[in-house]
Every structure is written in structure tokens, then in C-alpha cells.
């Protein structure tokens, strides 16, 4: 659910209501499966995270530029901008290859790959 400040107020307080329901369920049925699910949901709602940082493709050095930061439950974000070098491309490619190999290994060990 994405909050739109210019949109309708229909869903504005749904997350708050979900937390209230979870708190009530955990209080009443602490050791139940449902209470465990409520704790998981609380964690999902309250977790602080930065989902994504996007910038324009080309930026002029020493000039302001725009960035889009997608975040949840975060008050401050500190970013450091560094120049891009070709070695980053190689590092990214190596990381993606290792990640793919690890994924295939985990899937084969869990019986997901035939």
C-alpha cells in the first residue's frame, strides 16, 4: 500500500489499525500461531528500510541533481556520492555471477532444480 498525500483518505489509517489488531491478538493469545503471525506483521510494518535510490542517468559534475529515495519509517538518510568508474561495472558483474551461482546451488540442494 503506497500513501498518496493528494489521494483519498480511505486507507490513511489502515496500518495503524492493523498494528492495534496485532497488539490485541498478541495480548490475548500470546503463544498461538496467530500471535506469531501478528508479530511478523508488526515487524513488517515497523521495520525501518531504504528500498531504493535512483538518480538521473547523466549528471553534470559540481551541479545539483535530482534523486528519488524510496524509504519507510526512516527519519534521516546519509548518502555519499562518489564518481562511477569502470571497475564498478566489473565488480557488479562478478557479484551478480556469484549470486547466481549461489542461488543455483541453494536451489539444487533444496530439490528445486531438476
Mean pLDDT across residues: 81
In sequence order, what are the helices and strands, one letter per element?
HHEEH
- Helical amount among residues, as a percent range? 40-55%
The geometry reads as flat
What spatial order of strands do you see in the largest sheet? 1-2
**Helix count from the secondary structure assignment:** 3
Task: Return residue spans where pLDDT drops below 50 for at least 5 consecutive residues.
Answer: none
Count of beta strands: 2
Report the end-to-end length measured between terminal Cα atoms.
36 Å
Structural class per helix/strand content?
Answer: mainly alpha
Computed CA radius of gyration, to the nearest angstrom:
21 Å
Strand content: 5-15%
| Main sheet record | 2 strands, antiparallel
Q: Explain this structure to me?
A:
By secondary structure, this protein is mainly alpha-helical. It has a domain at about 85-114. The protein has 3 helices and 2 strands; from the N terminus they run ααββα. The chain has a two-stranded antiparallel ribbon with strand order 1-2. It is flat, with a radius of gyration of 21 Å. The model has no long low-confidence stretch (mean pLDDT about 80).
Amino acid at each position: 500500500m503506497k500513501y498518496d498525500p493528494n489521494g483519498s483518505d480511505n486507507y490513511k489509517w489502515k496500518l495503524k489499525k492493523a498494528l492495534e489488531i496485532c497488539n490485541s491478538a498478541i495480548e490475548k493469545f500470546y503463544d498461538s500461531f496467530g500471535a506469531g503471525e501478528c508479530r511478523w506483521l508488526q515487524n513488517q510494518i515497523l521495520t525501518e528500510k531504504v528500498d531504493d535510490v535512483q538518480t538521473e542517468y547523466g549528471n553534470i559534475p559540481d551541479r545539483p541533481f535530482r534523486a528519488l529515495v524510496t524509504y519507510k519509517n526512516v527519519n534521516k538518510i546519509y548518502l555519499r556520492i562518489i564518481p562511477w568508474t569502470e571497475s564498478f561495472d566489473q565488480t557488479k558483474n562478478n557479484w551478480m555471477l556469484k549470486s547466481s551461482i549461489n542461488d543455483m546451488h541453494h536451489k539444487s540442494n533444496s530439490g528445486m532444480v531438476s
